[in-house]
Amino acid sequence: MTTSNRVCRLLGIRYPLIQAGMVWCSPWQLASAVSDAGGLGVIGAASMYPDVLALHIDRCRKATDRPFGVNLPLLYPDLDAHIERILAARVPVVFTSAGNPRKYTRMLKDRGVTVVHVVSSAAFAKKAEDAGVDAVVAEGFEAGGHNGREETTTFCLVPQVVAGVDIPVIAAGGIGTGRAMLAAMVLGAEGVQIGSRFVASAESSAHPSFKRKVVDTPEGGTVLTLKELTPVRLIRNPFYASVEKAYAGGASTEALRELLGRGRAKRGMFEGDLDEGELEIGQVSAQIREVLPAARIVSEIIGEYRTLLDGFKAGRFDVDLEPA
């Protein structure tokens, strides 16, 4: 990669590849491994109390001398305490999501933090740009975990966002290979954010049973549901079957909230309850075949990206478009 890439320059990284800050799956071990491999590792704050987040930041900084970030959902109840810990530790990059970035972006940037906001539409991307963020992540419908209500796929979303803003756009959703990374860059993205592929990494804090479940998930094995609460993409399991049954019975929003309860994601992804837990993962899980070290995942994605890019430059993918 060259330094002409705006995402690399903005984040101070070698490759424009960001590991998503995933709830229950993104500890300091994963973030530091991805950063050491040349991407940007991100600690997922959504599953952490403020003091736990501070511990992960401290350990990540001791484990790598490369830049890293923290993902901060803006709906989190301990948000102010999280921001206090982030600023005190001088975290270089914050990825915000699930809310309006206007309130906190200026505060973070005034303290020297680079701010990137996750969006699911071109309209939200423009609002984020107007709020002063440095870049946006355009996350398509294919992505795991909490998602946009628009159900816009990455292939449709990325060029729309690129056309609507002047700041760098990072593509997310359905990306887990170098081939997909190249496709996103051709669509106008200047980087990619990858979540599901890193769930099934050695350094992920996901439960080993959940990692195996991700590897075993077939095509069509995930579904976007609970849009009345917060849209989330899940693996089909007995818990999801109970959600489906509730919908069939005309369940109210309150009944769905009660069914979801508290700690359902922790139960599934962190504690390994594959039946009654919430198992958040993206559609790209159907392409994942094994659990690998994070550094190898980065190396394989970048290697495939470079091989394909070199092939295009050499003309090996030329097609005769002249009429027969």
Brief overview:
The chain is of the alpha/beta class and 324 residues long. The protein has 14 helices and eleven strands.
Task: Set out the fold topology.
Layout (H helix, E strand, L loop, with lengths): L5 H6 L5 E3 L8 H9 L4 E4 L5 H14 L4 E6 L5 H10 L4 E5 L4 H9 L3 E6 L2 H10 L3 E5 L5 E2 L7 H11 L4 E4 L5 H9 L4 E4 L1 H4 L8 H9 L5 E4 L6 E4 L2 H11 L4 H8 L3 H7 L23 H20 L11
Parallel strand pairs: 1-9, 2-3, 3-4, 4-5, 5-6, 6-8, 8-9
Antiparallel strand pairs: 7-11, 10-11
- Provide the CATH top-level class of the largest domain: Alpha Beta
Q: How are strands sequenced across the largest beta sheet?
A: 1-9-8-6-5-4-3-2
Q: Strand portion, in percent?
A: 5-15%
CATH topology of the largest domain: TIM Barrel
Query: Can you summarize the main beta sheet?
Result: 8 strands, parallel
The number of distinct β-strands equals: 11
Distance between the termini: 38 Å
Q: In terms of per-residue confidence, which ranges show pLDDT below 50 for 5 or more consecutive residues?
A: none
Mean pLDDT reading: 94
* Dominant shape: globular
* Named CATH architecture of the largest domain: Alpha-Beta Barrel
Number of individual domains = 2
Name the CATH superfamily assignment of the largest domain.
Aldolase class I
Characteristic terms for this protein:
single chain, 324 residues, eight-stranded parallel beta sheet, three-stranded antiparallel beta sheet
Structure description:
With 324 residues, the chain is an alpha/beta fold. The protein has two domains: 227 residues, Aldolase class I (TIM Barrel); 76 residues, no CATH class. 42% of the residues lie in helices and 15% in strands. It has 14 helices and eleven strands. An eight-stranded parallel β-sheet has the order 1-9-8-6-5-4-3-2. A three-stranded antiparallel β-sheet has the order 7-11-10, with no helix packed on it. α6 links the parallel β5 and β6. α3 runs parallel beside α4, α6 packs across α7 and α8 packs across α14. The termini are far apart. The model has no long low-confidence stretch (mean pLDDT 94).
